[in-house]
Amino acid sequence: MRRRLLWLGAAVLVLGLAGWGYWTWARPVPDPTAVAQGQIVRIQPNIGPMEDVLTAVGSLEPLIQIEVVSRAAGPVSQVAVQEGEAVEAGQLLVALDPTDLRLAVTRARASLTSAQANLRKLLAGPSEAELLRQEHAVAQARLQVERLAREVEQTQRLAAQGAVAPAELAQLEQDLALARRQLQLAEQELAELTAGPDPADVEVAQAQVAEAEANLALAEEELKWAEIRSPLTGTVLSVQVEAGETIQEGAVVATVGRLDRMRVTVPVHEIDVNRVRRGLPARVEADAAPGRIFEGTVTSVATVGTTQSGIVTFDVTVELENEANLLRPGMTVDVAIVVEEKPDALRLPLEAIFRQGNQDMVLVAQPDGSTRAVPIQVGLTDGRHAEIIAGLTAEDTVVIQAGGLPGAGPGRSGPGGRGPMPVIRF
After folding, report:
1. Which of 53-67, 154-168, 198-212 has the lowest mean pLDDT?
2. Which of 20, 22, 1 is nearest to 424 (CA)?
3. So what's the pLDDT on residue 39?
């Protein structure tokens, strides 16, 4: 319906402008003799505000909106909010089944406990019982070496007399060498026990504890991810999941935004874009809030244009307050960007201005009661008034025919000077 009205409005605008242009050039010059016949109205230029406005249409969106994604995978066990619901920062939006994540925490905690125990044992050194056992092992190994040494010595004497086979002597000598090696190892182990832990072993054990701590912290953090919470205070704009659904890591579960401040991006023709800059005021109107004007500000002007159907436009973003929450995302709004404004302009009604050739003119009352056509220079126009830059003062009296001339209407419009064409709304 809105699109149909817009097309109808465009057609009316074209026809109106065509008629207006014909009237502007074809209307007769006001007749000075009308003054003597009492068919004129006397007016004086007044001081008032004038502004140059660019108009466009766009759709609203929240200034801040965030797609909330899941950092974990799993089945959805609870959807705690609905679309349109107000939420606080940190409030639960969606919960996943935490069973597997809790088991991961339990395993990680057990691994940390084991690594910590190993490190404590290493740093504490051997117990008294362990030292006694190792000292006993050394003593036993030493006795074994002494016994075998005596046997080898006796066997060597017998072998020299031919009473023992050489093979038997060789076996005893091998047994003695093995016993000496075992004694050496036992003494080395006893020395290590009494010297304290090896620094390299301590470093490895400490690294194992640190790794176990990191794994536990990660498992606990992943358990928190099972509860997906709102990142800001605002309104739930959409919910993308349902209870029982299994989602993957990175899936969008909801969109949350703030509706107290909105923005609208509108296209501005390349001819006008250099007149627009950040900080300019703008007025926003919506059919959903009739009679309300929302004040806004231009916050960005695109550097690169967009071409569509041979027309180049640049996106201009306007931000505005929505304290009463009358505006909603997706609403179509009319935007008027004030590119120039003059609070104390010298103004005349457009009906007082006519043309001679390419010159804007007015009839000025003279002291003797006659009138004189005076050329003027027009600045801004707003569809009702024209700014007079030169040719008149506030003390001059301008005359126009009462009720207007044939084809009466404004004698000056945007295409004839700097002012924009009047804005026709439907």
Report:
1. 154-168
2. 20
3. 62
**pLDDT level of residue 423 (50, 70, 90 thresholds):** very low
Judge contact between 294 and 321, C-beta under 8 A: yes
pLDDT in tens, 71-92: 999 999 999 999 999 999 999 9
Determine what percent of the chain is predicted with pLDDT higher than 70. Answer: 85
Q: Are 14 and 358 in contact (CB under 8 A)?
A: no
Contacts with 77 (C-beta within 8 Å, 6 or more apart), sequence order: 95, 96, 97, 98, 243
Give the pLDDT mean for 299-309: 95
User: Per-residue pLDDT averaged across 123-128, rounded?
Assistant: 76
> CA–CA separation, 61 vs 215, rounded Å?
42
Q: What is the mean pLDDT of residues 180-186?
A: 92
Cβ atoms of residues 208 and 115 within 8 Å: yes
User: What are the phi and psi torsion angles at 245 (to 5°)?
Assistant: -75, 140
Q: How far apart are alpha carbons 175 and 169 in whole angstroms?
A: 10
Q: What is the 3-state secondary structure (H, E, C) of 331-387?
A: CEEEEEEEEEEEEEEEEEEHHHCEEECCEEEEEEECCCCCEEEEECEEEEECCCEEE
Degrees (nearest 5) of the Cα angle 247, 213, 125? 155
Q: What is the mean pLDDT of residues 133-137?
A: 88
Whether the CB-CB separation of 276 and 285 falls below 8 Å is answered with no
Reply yes or no on whether the pLDDT at 173 is more than 60: yes
In three-state form (DSSP H/G/I as H, E/B as E, the rest C), the secondary structure along 266-320 is EEEECCCHHHCCCCCEEEEEECCCCCCCEEEEEEEECCCCEEECCEEEEEEEEEE
- CB count within 10 Å of CB 337 equals 25
Query: Which residues have C-beta within 8 Å of that of residue 273, sequence separation ≥ 6?
Result: 301, 305, 313, 314, 316
Phi-psi region of 84 (alpha: psi -120 to 50; beta: other; left: phi over 0): left
Two structure tokens written together for 347:
């103004």
Burial of residue 151 (CB within 10 Å: 0-12, 13-18, 19+) is middle
Tokens of 296: 């806004």
Residues in the chain: 426
Angstrom distance (rounded) from CA 351 to CA 348:
8
Q: What is the token pair recorded at 5?
A: 């009205």
Mean pLDDT of the residues in the chain: 84
Q: Which among 339, 332, 338 has a CA at the least distance from the CA of 285?
A: 332
Q: Are 54 and 268 in contact (CB under 8 A)?
A: yes
